[in-house]
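[Automated response] Your request has been received and processed.

Submitted sequence:
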Amino acid sequence: GISIKGNAGAAGTNGTKLSAGAAAPTASVPASPAAGDMYIKTGSSPVLYTFASGAWDTGVALGGSAAASGLNVELRVTKTAAQTLAATDTTVAQTTSGEAVVYSTTNDAHAALTGGNTWDGTTFTVGGTGAGWYQLTSQFMVCNTTSNFANQNVSMLMEINGDAALSIYGTTTANLGNVALPKYSIRSVASGLVYLSAGDAVQIKAKGNSGSATLAIRTDGSSYFSVIKLN
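Generated structure:
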């Protein structure tokens, strides 16, 4: 009969290889890697590495505790521009949360907004994919613009969507006789854990609680607002 078997074809190009091991890949393990090869470090927190440009990359977590962590410092800003809280008429009921505090629009170099979150100097707004649990913290230092520090204090809150029921209220300390510098004797601190949905907005509001003196918010870095996303 007649054979219809042809000649052997040319050798094909090697494909990428997938290797695995308990330790991260090195320059010699696995042997002779090529561009595109992949390696999985096994264990409770597996990591996938890819070989490119002559070296293994830093790897991508595939699951376990490494992938579950989503903590990120979204925002850390300080008060940089002068702002004075007006004297309050203490003879009438207070119906407002105070005035919005204006911070720097420049985020700390070690913080980064994610999920479409935004900051404009007064309002932190949760972006379209930014929903989650957040830790909000604000510290306030104010200085009486007169020489009399008696009966002076400041009220501060982290206002969420303008709703008093959702807001986080600060605690105030004033008239500290053992403080070396009087300019630090009036302070307020607020901190709380809250779930924020897309579109939620947070502002820091404050007002002085005195009918006789105005209070200047300090701009030396002691007054700040920080936002940490936990997941």
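Summary generated for your ticket: Confidence is low (pLDDT under 50) at residues 64-69. The first strand starts at residue 18 and ends at 21.
If you did not submit this request, please reply to this message.
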